[in-house]
Structure formats: structure tokens, C-alpha cells
Amino acid sequence: MQILISNSSKEPIYEQIANQVKSSILAGELEEGAALPSIRQLAKDLHISVITTKRAYEELEKAGFIYSVVGKGSFVAEQNLEVIREKKLKVIEEQLSAVISNSREIGLSLEEMKELLDILYRE
Fold first, then answer.
1. What is the mean pLDDT of the segment spanning 69-92?
2. Do 76 and 31 meet the contact criterion of CB atoms below 8 Å apart?
3. What is the pLDDT of residue 86?
4. Tens of pLDDT along 25-58?
5. DSSP letter string, the chain
6. Same domain for 70 and 95?
7. Are 55 and 14 in contact (CB under 8 A)?
8. 48 and 92 co-located in one domain
């Protein structure tokens, strides 16, 4: 499992870790039951605080992506991909609604929006 931390990102480090682990799980790179590095090992590998990695794992566990077994470590939880897909679609819809609202405020036409979306999607 490779995690890249950006010190220039406005996103907190624990969120960067959690988001990258989530992405790996959703992409099938981390399979159900796969062991994650220990909190201490991940902190050491990333040269960050154990508290930061602990918070990332807690967030992942709270969201249902991983589970922990005392004395054994943390593991990838079983995922209901359809439920996750629906949640992601809802987030996308909310974000697109905000984009549409902003676009209307500056007078961007639907055709211009489609063109912009097409360009960005291909990148």
C-alpha cells in the first residue's frame, strides 16, 4: 500500500491517508480481509505522528472501510459496493449542483459547461 502525503495540501494529513486508503479499497487494490500496516509502522513509514495515523484509521473504521482487532491489527472490511456507489453519486450530484449554480451566476451556457466538463474529464 503506497500513500503519498502532500505538506502543501490544505487537506489535513489524516484525511489524505484516509482518502487514499478508501480509494485503494474502492478500486479493488486492497481486498476484503487484507491487513493494513500497523498504526506505528505507517507513522514510521510516512514520517508522521502516531496520533495522525491513529486518527486516519479511526475515521476509516467509523466510515466502515476497515475494522480493528485488538492485538492483531486493522483489516479491510467487507464492502457493499452498490451502497458506496450510491453515496458517491449523491456527493457528485451535490457538487454538480453547486457548479451549476456558480455557472449560472456568471452566465455560462449549458454548451460551455458541457465543453468544460468534456475537457476536464479527458485529462
1. 86
2. yes
3. 82
4. 888 889 899 999 999 999 999 999 999 999 999 9
5. ------TT-SS-HHHHHHHHHHHHHHTTSS-TTPBPPPHHHHHHHHT--HHHHHHHHHHHHHTTSEEEETTTEEEEPP--HHHHHHHHHHHHHHHHHHHHHHHHHTT--HHHHHHHHHHHHH-
6. no
7. yes
8. no
Question: What's the structural domain count of the chain?
Answer: 2
6 within a domain of the structure (yes/no): no
Residues 34 and 56 in one domain: yes
Alpha-carbon distance of 50 to 16, in angstroms, equals 15
Q: Which residue has the cell 486508503?
A: 21
Q: pTM for this structure? A: 0.69
Question: Rounded to the nearest 10 degrees, how much is the dihedral formed by the CA atoms of 53, 55, 58, 60?
Answer: -70
55 and 31 fall within a common domain: yes
Instruction: For residues 71 and 24, state if they share a domain.
Output: yes
State which residues form the domain around 37: 13-76
Mean pLDDT for 88-92 is 87
